[in-house]
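tool_call: predict_structure(chain=1)
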Amino acid sequence: MGVTELERAIFSILLLLSPVAAAQSFETLPRPYLTQGAIRGSLRISKICRTKWGSDARKVTEAMKEQVMHAYGFEVRTCPYTVYKGRRAHRVEIDHLIPRSLGGADDVRNLWPECYEPVMKDKSRQADGARKKDRLETYLHRKVCHPQSTELLKQYQNAIAANWLSLYRSIYRNK
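tool_result:
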């Protein structure tokens, strides 16, 4: 599904009016009409908690990544400069809205382009981006798995799909 010029213009206006826009110039939330979130329904919490996420096999293909980038009309240069391997670079990841570590699916409905933000010691001053979302994902995975709670898993899946930044801010107030 492609994005029309009118949709891009409307989204740009909404982004400019958002309070986050004053602090940064890149998108920090997925567009709900492109990325609703999707879970692997057959994945049990015991498997979620046993899996070493990041070392397991992903099923996100280059074609899926290109489809997501095209749907968003995304350009990496909109991301801020960060340091990567000793060099300054614009960096993006095709991220899972509902993380795989919480049962998120390798499905284009669960993927969106997310910029990496520069790291700051004071997390309350750090821009919103992939690193902050990774911090949230690690925390939520720990909470769901110790002790294992299917109810908490479903709550976190819904909350992160609705607005990961709101969930982040409710957990890490000024941190």
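agent: Confidence is low (pLDDT under 50) at residues 14-23. Proceeding to next step.
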